Amino acid sequence: MDSNTIGIIILLSSFVILILFRFPIALTLVASSLLTVIYLGIPLPVIGQQMIQGVNSFSLLAIPFFILTGQIMSEGGLANRIVNFASLLVGRIRGGLAMVNSVAALFFGNISGSAVADVSSVGSVMIPMMKKNGYEADYAVGVTIASAIQGVVVPPSHNLVLYSLAAGGVSIASLFMAGIVPGIIMLIALMITGYLIARKRGYGKADPVPKSQIGGILLHGILSLSPAVIILGGILTGWFTATESGALACLYSFILAFGIYREAPVSSIWKILIRTTRTVSMVFFLIAASAAFGWILAYLQIPGMVTDLFLNISDNPLVILLIINILLLLLGAPMDMAPMILIMTPILLPVVTNLGMDPVHFGIVLILNAGIGLLTPPVGTVLFVGCAIGKVSIQQGTKAMMPFFYALLVVLLIITYIPEVVMWLPHLLVK
Question: How many CA atoms lie within 13 Å of 180's alpha carbon, on the beta-carbon side?
Fold first, then answer.
């Protein structure tokens, strides 16, 4: 065997072994990269250079601002107001609280861009409320965790920013616009599934909203959703970059949460900043580690090999895309979302672009696959958080989630094989 082949074996085997021994994914990426460059005789400082270069991007500044905005809105009691707004819109449908849950998760995802933040904030309100109104706990958990996945696709998702970076600078504006229609389709699919289960189990409608409260609910709902409008509007009009829009949304959410609503003391900002710093530090170290790992992948020409492998399996794009989706769903079970995006993008993007697939389109497909992975053990973060809030076992939560899981798979197939669903808005609005 030549040195490159042995290098590939060292890289991949060390990665798998360290993962099996439950090493943190970022440390695993760095360790695998170091072992490989030592064998290949590449100077060690190259790894450090690639790690620094990986985080040396102005666009990445958007991530801390998006995360901080979501943290402020969550701490400031915005989830309750979004739930009330959603209840006003869809509460009178059979299984009303499930419908409210799905819509509220979509709205909150517009702010947080995080499925875990979504299920933590909306779930903390909706799951106890649904249980109090006669809904079984497993159903409440199932609809909550499935609905939270909308947050990874609908803008402004920081996962889309990660993909933009990993894909070599794909337009963030195009990715944000591309996530809107799939997000709406996900909402419709989840609401239909929730409605059918609600009819089967005999759940009724939510209590009507008193007419005297409608005006206030509308006002507070619009104010609570304004950060997403600031971010998307600023980017779309070209007035602000993604980073500048995130900073403005952060300032607005601070004024709204601590200046107008005042449900949380100003002193809690320190707790918010600590949580945000912890999250951002983990994300940025992961990005740096993935940059080094990605450089080694490129040096060993692994993306080209993977492309040839897929093309040798079949020359039918439909078959290759199905195989890629199955692969991503399987990887989503043991792998968290961010590392999956950062590792698989440089490997699979050459494959799909060779088939004529737009990088923006593939980005949404990849993100949804990774989001669905958050529902599946052993690394089903959203599943675990939802079950903890609802006080049900992982087995109960998984069983209740499965109808919604199948609905999300149908949505995945739609956005994979009908590119116009994803690309219509970017082509229309992004110049």
Answer: 14
